[in-house]
Amino acid sequence: MSEAAERFAQFKLVLLGESAVGKSSIVHRFVKNTFDNMRESTIGAAFLTQSVHLAESNTTVKFEIWDTAGQERYKSLAPMYYRNANAALCVYDITSRSSFSKAQDWIKELKKQAPEGIVICLVGNKVDLKDEREVDEQEVAEYVEELNQEQSSAGAPAGKVILAECSAKSGDGVLETFNVIARALPVEDAVGGARNRQLRNKRSSGVDLSRGRQQQQSQAASSCC
Amino acid sequence: MSLYEAPATTTGHLALPTDKTHSRSGSSYSGNYSFINMYDCPSPGSSHAVDPTVESELEELHLTEELNSAKRLGEVAEVDEGDEGDGQGQGQGQGQEADEDSSVKESDTSDSKDGTIVGSDTSGTNAGSQVSATMVGSSSVLSLARNSNISVSTRTSSIPFDPTSSILDISDQAVHDQVLKSNFDRYGFKKPSSEGSNGVSGERYNTWFKDYSRYLERNKKKWQALMKNNGLGEAESRTKPPNRFPPKSDKVKKLIRKGIPAEWRGNAWFFYAGGHEKLNKHTGVYEQIVRDTEGVHNKDTEVIERDLNRTFPDNIYFNKSLETKHLKDSQLNSSAGKEETQSIKSLRRVLVAFAHYQPHIGYCQSLNFLAGLLLLFMREERCFWMLVILTERIIPKVHSANLEGVHIDQGVLMLCIKEYIPQLWGILGKNFEGETLSEDKILTRLPPVTLVTSSWFMSVFVGNLPIETTLRVWDILWYEGSKSIFRISLTICKMCLEDTAFNSRGNVGSGAEIDQIELFQFMQNYPKTIIDPNILIDNCFKKIGGYGFGSLSQDEINKCREFVGKQRARLTSKKQSVMKAEMSDEERRALQSSGFDGEIHDVYGFHRSIMSGVAWNKNISNRMKKKWKK
């Protein structure tokens, strides 16, 4: 492995999904590694940050996490959330069918309105409640497959929807999800400065912009997980 | 061991609490108290007195007439102060709410009816207390009772407590010490266990509480003196929370800003918000709605159900599992704590009834916190009408289906920040790309910091500020109206700006951009650290050494709201006319990101003239203030 200097990149990630699917819980598991059985409803938005380190490319990715309120009517604030977002986590609850169709709506909305090249990840939460599962894994996989085919046949730039499941309660899959997203993000653009003025200002010197081989591999792996 | 057994054991055979409003606040303390008893210290329960239920109930019936006249006096005071910048909320239309025609007889009927709803009218008292005695003894009976009879299932009847008992009297050293020892505060909220990003430690809480309780003691004496001077029976205010309060005046306003004694809060809020008038006009309405909406399922009730257990999960009255927190986590996750508290049941009824009564609002997340906090201080019918008053009169449209009021009030707040805290505006008044927003774009593209500040309005600081600080703001809110939210918001913003930690973020050095997310995080977490309410209130209102936001008048807020609302309406209609044409996603996206700048530019020419109108009014109010001083 080459001895490239460590790279930093910062991205805005927004969480969307029906109320009580566990958006804030996922964030708290990721940021603080804690879980509360009962968490207060999020009003408006909540802001947190957390970094992940990608060893294979020696890159630290800092997520600016915009956690949002889930209720339908908060949608009028949504453009503020996803404007300039680099990634979106569309969360549903595997024990609630309606939450899955809500997540599908969000994906539609993002494809229409969000910045181009946004990394979208569809996450089924609460896998610890697998006995109460209402949303079939196979069905979700087919939906995503179809979505991604549409995307490529329409000649649209890459930007496949990533599929994941997790449990904020047990912690299963949470970190992995954020890692997969980090790998899918255009780290070299951000480090290069097109996207990220803070980092350009602070850390533009001495950054190796070459894309690591491993990173490419992991990106390929992520899109079909 | 059930939480609600505790009051029964410590308070013995209390009669039903008479005072409908205060039983709840009392019960908080009772529960907390007994909780402390159970786990922390030996029972001091002897000081609990039997509530003279019947007497107080009767007295309330006779009060109404006097109350109406007191109210009218209040109106006069309001008008008198109207021109002063910090006068009484003339924009609230509280006076209009007073029903000129409501005869004494009518009021009497309504009040007694009122009583039947909560099962605390004179005739029902005995039966009620019997049921409640059973209920507190057995949690399974609790749930049965809920289905059988509305009156039985309200907290009032299920948690007997005398609100004047010693638990509220933190001048009692024993009680004071118990609050210090407990893991829960006076209201049943869990004290923060460690210094986190969004809170303060229990230790810091205790240090503050020791001082603050002395302040409260002194303050209560002032209140008692005020009551006495207004002929509102000294005896009354000593033995139980008063139902009547002095008409609005400068003196009362000052004392309100110093804080209402916790045990009087529910009654005082209700009185000054115009709750009695509202209730008298709508006799039996709440009861009827609760009956009509029982078992209803719709979109609103779905969201409500999901939010019930996410309302104050750190409060023992809302989360039973907190009782068992001393058990191991594994035990906790099993069966314990799954059971609904009376507060949760009341919360469900209030929110469902509200959604039904205000269909243009329905249920909006954050109403759960507003109702939840009210329920700690008053019974559910009053809580219901307070929600109606808040959403109709104080912050209209904020909870409406499209949250239009949120956008409007955030627009107003941003204009205020630009006007009054220009230095902060220099940091916050930027769009997502980090470009400074020019004057004509503030309203079309609200700066992202409004995602932080909008929750200050939607939940009126519940969960944003520490509980005691929130309650002090609420004291002022119900008395002075919506301008209080703006004044306090501006004060918080300025305190943020003056905080050294903010400054280190704010001046990242030689021309470098500020990391917006860090600013948002700071502004999001900062209010939680304002543990001493007096600092916030003094900064806001103090004539010398304060920020002077106390002179931001309701009139100015109303004018500004109207202006922002009009601009938004024009913008929306422009947007629609542009958008309805068939266009590709790309075109739409391009248009969206351009923010329709070209389209609304002319609108902003209009903006200036109206804004100067607002400024003109400010000058007027300043001049008027000087006049008044003379």
UniProtKB/TrEMBL annotation, chain A:
InterPro entries named among the record's database cross-references: P-loop_NTPase, Small_GTP-bd, Small_GTPase
Keywords: Nucleotide-binding
Protein name: Vacuolar protein sorting-associated protein 21
Region (Disordered): 195-225
CDD domains linked to this entry: Rab5_related
Naturally occurring in which organism (per UniProt): [Candida] railenensis
Biased composition (Low complexity): 214-225
MF term (GO), any: GTPase activity
TrEMBL record, chain B:
Pfam families: RabGAP-TBC
Region (Disordered): 1-27, 79-131, 231-252
GO (cellular component) term, any one: site of polarized growth
Bias (Basic and acidic residues): 102-114
SUPFAM superfamilies (alphabetical): Ypt/Rab-GAP domain of gyp1p
Residues annotated as domain Rab-GAP TBC: 259-481
Domain of life: Eukaryota
Skewed-composition ranges (Polar residues): 119-131
Protein name in the entry: GTPase-activating protein GYP3
Gene source species: [Candida] railenensis
